[in-house]
Amino acid sequence: MAHRTLKMEKSKPLALSKEDRLVVAMDVHKKTVYAALRRNGQEVDTWVMPMRIETVAASLEPMKPWLKKVVYEAGPTGYGLARALKTAGMPVEVIAPGKTPQPANPGSKTDRLDCRRLAEYAEKGLLTPVAIPTEQEDADRQVVRLRDQIVIKQRRVKQQIKSLLLQQGIAEPAGLAHWSAEGIGALKAMSLRHQIRLALELLVEELEFLIASRQRVERQMAWLAKQKRHRENHRILRTHPGVGPVTAMSFLTEVYQAQRFTRAEELTSYVGLAPRVRQSGQTRREGPLIRAGRGALRSLLIEASWQWIRRDDAAAGVYRRLVRNTGSGQKAIVAMARRLAVHLWCMVCRKEKYRVAA
Prior knowledge:
By secondary structure, the protein is of the alpha+beta class. It folds into 3 domains: 18-130, Ribonuclease H-like superfamily/Ribonuclease H (Nucleotidyltransferase, domain 5, 2-Layer Sandwich), CATH 3.30.420; 135-225; 230-274 and 290-350, no CATH class. 51% of the residues lie in helices and 16% in strands. It has a 6-stranded mixed beta sheet with strand order 5-4-3-6-7-8, sandwiched between helices. Strands 1-2 form a two-stranded antiparallel ribbon. β4 and β5 (42-50) form a beta hairpin. α4 (135-167) crosses α8 and α8 (245-254) crosses α10.
């Protein structure tokens, strides 16, 4: 490839040869993108541009023959930019923010400094990329996450209703412990002062709307489970004791591209079920879980683990042994959830149904 000169944003024109390698790191926000360019271990330029995918792609297009890597941290802007750059033939990586090296003395922090540091780390191979979901994988996952958001809102409204009753000295009607239809109907039939009635009616209406919304989303999840891209894996996961349709679909959409994990430790760290280990000499301690992954998926795996040990004698025996060893039922059930996650991952990768332990 012959020498070529690139016109840079603020510095002198850059002459490039076929031996040159460029690394671009970006700090991506809702309205702006700060970018830093390095060539062969040296910083060359930094610039800022509007956060429009076509603008970013156009700024990188002249560099494409020399690009070694384009990186930016995962964040609220999603993966649309990465997918577009990948389609354009650029070597793009989305970086896990929690695994980006942090200096002991960070000093000043600006968007321009952040992208410069990121470019340096990328050039040295110090960053950990995440898997970029396809548009279909991203869309499927949003349905499951919508259900998680509705569940959180339902819980909040239920707490508000109970708080209102407690504050006004009103006894909870029968059936409210499990929020049955009879219990909600009893709330509507209560004889109250006009102002209290107004507050309670609005909260009950919101709860009923959320219940209907959750049912609608779960119907969509059931439809997704029947689609060709999920049908076989969903059927396989349902053979595991304790795993229902919601847990199976949540696992499939959150742990997308399951074959990318090469070890069980990678999976458990991804879903946030790996304990924090501290070892020095002969002393080894396991602390709380490493904060990672989706809390909603962890909760579903833990709930499924309780059902698992109720339905599987072998699993119940493992749970009792863990309780004896740890002295804590909570630690034991988390360990069972970790085993469950590994089981589901192996079942998907190997296309094998659950086999009862001998």
